[in-house]
UniProtKB/TrEMBL annotation:
Stored SUPFAM superfamilies: F-box domain
Residue stretches making up the F-box associated beta-propeller type domain: 95-327
Pfam families: FBA_1
Protein name from the UniProt record: F-box associated beta-propeller type 1 domain-containing protein
């Protein structure tokens, strides 16, 4: 509960109460009074609502946005890809450790090609950055607003013949530039040519990466400097924290690539030194205002995986220290973790593309029933989500 100060007016108290409601309720209230509509649309109220959402320490539940696809194959052998979004609220009884969850389907109303996946490539303040085919979109699932970004200034059409430059999307990040007070999208582009008509990896001539930044205020892309080796391969999905975007990357060994949204400079960060060489780092997620990475060791004789969860101390800089948070397993039938939703609880992908929650304190798994029951599930992604009123348009 919030405290009422003696100096507060009834209007102040009304604003305080409204700023703690869900976006769904507030969007309805905008239709009740013109003054409420003006208030809810105001930048100061949007900022206050976001601050309350991010600082809600009393909430016992964790909200997770889940994205996945399933295929439908028809008798004539045609097919389409259905993209499914769900909002999952997870909570647990502190005394008996029972897991409770509520699943709500989401319908994001932008048009799309039924053959392309919709993949999340960044998230910040309730806004997700998506790629669908050749399109880049910003979307606020809470308000159901979206914005289609203009075409890249660096990506060119696929070449028709040999000795022509081929450009490929190779990593995207999205976040808030606190210095400029605006949201930005950064894109890394791989450039290459082929030595002959056989467009294979063996015949590929790699050129330096290029990069570009899109700002929501200016609504266009601009090329920026990037100084990383062409042997560095960032994974497409990024994690945003406090003015920086982070990618899991490889350049002969696993590392993290970071990007300062304010200075627009890339950095390379070392992952924890692996004491045992058979552990492989695989990805990043955000937990409790910290960059978190996981690695695993596979035992072929037992067909099992042992996982370690590491937390980065500090952020942004080239040098960072790491602390091991959890060791879980070995497990049979567990593919990889999706996210850490409490300090000892992991949302994981199990065999058959099932989503399951693991409680490391009790050692218990619980599968989540997420309708519709799906077959041939692909592109599973999950992130800790905070609802917001932050506008897209």
């Amino acid at each position: 509960m919030f405290q009422v100060r003696e100096s507060e007016t009834p209007e102040d108290r009304a604003v305080e109460i409204l700023s703690r409601l869900s976006p769904k309720s507030l969007l309805r209230f905008k239709c009740i009074r013109k003054s409420w509509c003006t208030l809810i649309n105001s930048p100061s109220f949007v900022a206050k609502h976001l601050s309350n959402s991010l600082d809600n320490k009393l909430s016992s539940s964790t909200c997770i946005l889940l994205n996945r696809s399933q295929f439908h194959i028809f008798p004539d052998q045609s097919w389409k890809r259905e993209v499914l979004w769900s909002m999952i609220n997870l909570s647990i009884d502190s005394d008996v450790h029972n897991l409770h969850y509520d699943v709500k389907p989401l319908n994001i109303p932008f048009s799309r090609d039924d053959h392309n996946p919709v993949q999340i490539h960044g998230y910040c303040n309730g806004i997700v950055c998506l790629i669908e085919g050749d399109n880049v979109l910003l979307c606020n699932p809470s308000t159901r607003e979206f914005r289609l970004l203009p075409n890249s200034c660096l990506l060119v059409p696929h070449p028709e013949g040999k000795f022509e430059l081929e450009t490929t999307f190779h990593g995207m990040g999205f976040g808030y530039d606190c210095k400029a007070n605006e949201y930005k999208v950064v894109q890394i582009v791989e450039n290459c040519e082929y030595s002959d008509d056989e467009q294979t990896y063996q015949h590929c001539i790699a050129y330096p990466y290029t990069a570009e930044v899109y700002t929501t205020a200016a609504n266009f892309w601009k090329e920026i400097k990037i100084d990383i080796s062409s042997s560095t391969h960032p994974y497409p999905f990024s994690v945003y924290l406090k003015g920086f975007c982070y990618w899991f990357a490889t350049d002969g060994e696993e590392c993290i690539l970071s990007f300062d949204l304010g200075d627009e400079i890339f950095h390379r960060i070392q992952l924890p030194s692996k004491i045992e060489s058979d552990f492989n780092f695989c990805g990043l997620f955000l937990y409790n205002e910290s960059i978190t990475s996981y690695c695993y060791r596979y035992d072929p004789s037992e067909d099992s995986k042992l996982f370690e969860i590491w937390v980065m101390d500090g952020y942004g800089g080239v040098k960072s220290s790491w602390t091991k948070l959890l060791t879980v397993g070995p497990f049979k039938g567990i593919e990889y973790p999706l996210t850490l939703w409490k300090c000892d609880k992991l949302l994981m992908v199990a065999s058959g593309r099932r989503v399951t929650s693991y409680n490391s304190s009790t050692g218990n798994f619980k599968d989540l029933h997420i309708p519709p029951i799906m077959h041939q599930v692909t592109d599973l992604q999950a992130l800790i989500y905070e609802e917001s009123l932050v506008p897209i348009k």
